[in-house]
Amino acid sequence: MSDDNPCVGICQIDESGYCIGCGRSADEIFGETDSAVGGQDSATDSLKPVAGSPADASD
């Protein structure tokens, strides 16, 4: 592990939402992946279906 990273290799989020190893919240560790900040679209909003994928099929 680097000096900048407080991770001690015990990655387990407790019931309060903080890692028992480093004490950081899940958002601090993994980043905010599901919520957009300031009205921005999330990364998955810009994805297009792949041709031939089940989402592209018409019944």
Q: What's the arrangement of secondary structure elements?
A:
Blueprint: H1 26-30
Main features:
59 residues, little secondary structure, 1 helix
What multimeric state do the chains show? single chain
Characterize the main sheet.
none
- Rounded mean pLDDT is 74
Distance between the termini: 51 Å
Helix content: under 10%
Order of helices and strands: H
* Poorly predicted spans: none
Explain this structure.
The chain is low in regular secondary structure. Helix content is 8%, strand content 0%. The chain has 1 helix and no strands. The protein is elongated, with a radius of gyration of 18 Å. The N and C termini lie far apart (51 Å).
Task: Give a quick summary of the entry.
The protein is built from one helix and no strands.
